[in-house]
Amino acid sequence: MHNDQNRFVADTPGVLDEIASKLLHEHAGKKVFAFYGPLGAGKTTFIKAICNVLEVVDDVNSPTFSIINQYFTKNDETVYHFDFYRLESVAEAFDIGYEDYIYSGSYCFIEWPEKIDQLLPEYTVRVEIEPMEGTLARLVTF
After folding, report:
1. CA–CA distance from 117 to each of 22, 88, 141 (Å)?
2. Which of 33, 35, 36, 64 has its C-alpha lying 20 to 30 A from 123's C-alpha?
3. How many CB atoms are located within 10 Å of the residue 134 CB?
4. Which CATH architecture has domain 2-141?
5. Would the pTM count as exceeding 0.85?
């Protein structure tokens, strides 16, 4: 892992927990995180690492079809994981009651947030994950 301020090169899968810890430490007290990156960039994999750091006891996987997954930590705290890839309109976010989750005070990790950018609170932490051309490494910026 190479670090350039809040830009990290994840060049091995094992380094993701370390980057996840830095993200949570850097943004202590913040609960809404939006993950930007192309299909296959590793958004779900990085969210799994964050959930590992938070000691989530449930299996973490992409809520592609359910749109939202709810997990619990070993301290029985709730974590919400959204995947808005299949969302057809902002109205669908209202239909699932996104605001109940986003403003719940629980951690919210959002994949494909560009589908609902205008609905995200100002304090949302933006995380970008980009594949590095010609390698398996990822550039993680927050």
Report:
1. 24, 14, 18
2. 64
3. 6
4. 3-Layer(aba) Sandwich (3.40)
5. yes
